[in-house]
Amino acid sequence: MTTRSLPVLDIAPPATGPAGPRDPFAPDDARLAEFRPEARALPAFFVWTLGCQMNKSDSEEMAGRLLAAGCPEAPSMEAADVVVINTCAIREAAEAKVIGRQGHLGRLKAANPSLRVVMTGCSVRESNRAGLKRRYPAVDLFLRPDEEPELIDRLGLASAQAPVGALARTSALTTVKGLEVSDATHLVRARADAIAGGAILRGSAISAWLPIIYGCDKTCTYCIVPFSRGPERSRPFDEIVDEARALAAQGYREVTLLGQNVNSYGHDLAPEGRFSHVVTERTVGRHQDRTARPDLAELLRAVDALRAVDGTPAIPRLRFVTSHPWDLSDRLIEAMRDCPSLCEALHLPVQSGSDSMLRRMGRQYTIEHYLERLARLREAVPGLALSTDVIVGFCGETEAEYEATVRLLETVRYDQVFAAAYSERPGTPATKLADDVPAAEKRRRLVALLELQEGIGLERNRAWLGRETEVLVDAVVPPRLHDHEDEEAAGAAESRDAFAHLPAGVVHLAGRSRENKLVHVAGPADLVGRLARVRVEHAGPYALRGTLA
Ligand code: SAH
Ligand code: SF4
Ligand code: F3S
Description:
Radius of gyration: 23 Å
Number of helices: 15
Shape: globular
Bound molecules: S-adenosyl-L-homocysteine, iron/sulfur cluster, FE3-S4 cluster
CATH class of the domain at 1-181: Alpha Beta
Structural class: alpha/beta
C-alpha cells in the first residue's frame, strides 16, 4: 500500500523538452560562443519545490525570473549558490521535511560561504515571521508567497540584464480571522510582467500549468492556505486566454488551469457587457453576485475554442484543479459536457462523508448536495473519472462519522482518493477545537481507508481491460525509479518487470489517459509528447499497462 500526500497531476519533464539545467548564456548561434559573458559571475540557482501544483507553477515563475536575470540553473542543491526552497505548510509532515534539511544546508553553507538560502511558499506567513529563523536556521531570506516576485531585487540581482526585477511590490496587509495576511493584489500584475519578460521556466514542454486565480476565500477550519495565500484574486480573462494561446503556439498538448478554488474564478472581476449572459445561481451557502462577470465555464469554453487549422482544439487536453463542491455550477457541468478538449476527469475534494464533520470543517455543503452534483456530472460526462481528498481523524471524529466516509467511498467508487490524517495547523480556526483523535487511531482509520480504496481503484482500472485509450506520452521510464514510495513509483514498478527485455529502439514509456490514469506502454522514445492509442492489457490499482494499438 502506498500513500500520496497531495492531489498532484505529476508529469515528469519530457526527454525531448527542457531537460536538465538550463544555461541563460547559451548562444543561439554557435559562432557567437566566444562572446559568452562570464556566467559564474552570477550565482547558480536551484529551486526545491514541495507541495501542490500552485507551488510548482510559482517555482516556474521564480526560476524564470532568475534565468532572465542571468543566473544559470544548477544541476543540484549541492552545486548551487542560491537555493530557493518553495515550502508547503498543509500538514506538519511537509514542514518537517524542510526542517530536516537544515543541517545539510548548514554544512553546504560552511563549504560554500557565498551560498544563500531563500525560503518562500506557504510556510512563510506574516504571523509566524518572528519564529522562522529559529525553526529554519540555515535560511538567509524569508519571502511570503506574495513576495516571490521580489526575489531578484531582494537578492541584489536586479540589473540591466534583468528585465524582470523591481516590477512588483508587495500589497497591503489585511486581516483574516485575526491574522495578518497580504492582500496580494499585485500578483496578477507580476504574472503579466513575467509573461511579457519571458520569465517563466516551464518544467515540461508537453503539459503546462496556468494559474487563473490566486488565494482562497473559503474558511475550511483545518486549512492554512487562506493564511498563506490571502484572499482570492482572479487574473483578467483575456490574459489567461492569451497565455493559453501562446502555449498552444509553443506546442503544448495539455494545459491545467490552476487555483485553490477555480470555481470561484471571476467573482472579483468587474462586470462587462460581453458577459451579460453569465448568471450563476447559488444553490447553497452564502450569496455571491456574479452577474455579467466571467466564470470558469466561460473561460473553459474560450480556451477550448482556440482551434488548429483542421478545426480540432489547439490544446487537445484541458484540465482544471481544484474545484470546491459548494460552487460547482450547472454552467461548469454544461461546459464539461460541451467542450471536446476538456478531459473526462474531475478532482472534487469531499473531505468527509459525514454532514456533522463537514459542518465542523466549515465546508459549506452537505453530502446530499455533493452527491447531487456528482449525479449531474456523471449524467453530463459519461465515463467521468473522479478523484477526491479525504481527511480522517479531524477534531471530534467519532467512529460513526468515520464510517460515513467509508460508506461514501463505497458508494461513489472514486478512481483515486488522496487521504491524509488531520494535522493541526497553527492559527487556523480548528485550533479552537480539541485535536482529540489519538495518533494511532488516525493511522488506523487512514490505513483502512486506503486499503478499501486500493480495491476500488483496482476494480475501476480493471474496467479498462481490453479497451483502447488515448495516452499523452510524457516520459521515458528509467529502469529504476527512485526509491520514494508514491503511487507513480508503485505504478512504474508494476510495469518494470514486464518491460525488462525490450527490443532495440523500444523503451518503457509512461503517460496519462484523458481520465488521468497513469498508463505504461513500450514504444519508440519519439512518442514522448505525442498522443498514442493504447490497448489496455493489464490493470493494477495505480496504473494501467498496454500495447500500442
Ligand atoms: N483547495 C483545495 C485543497 C488544497 S489542500 C480544496 O479545497 O480542495 C489539499 C488537501 O489537503 C485538502 O483537500 C485536504 O484534504 C488536505 N488538508 C488540508 N489541510 C489539512 C490538514 N490540516 N490536515 C490534513 N490534511 C489537510
Ligand atoms: Fe483550504 Fe478549503 Fe481553501 Fe481548499 S477551499 S484551500 S481546503 S480553505
Ligand atoms: Fe501546500 Fe500551499 Fe499548496 S500549503 S498544498 S503549497 S497552497
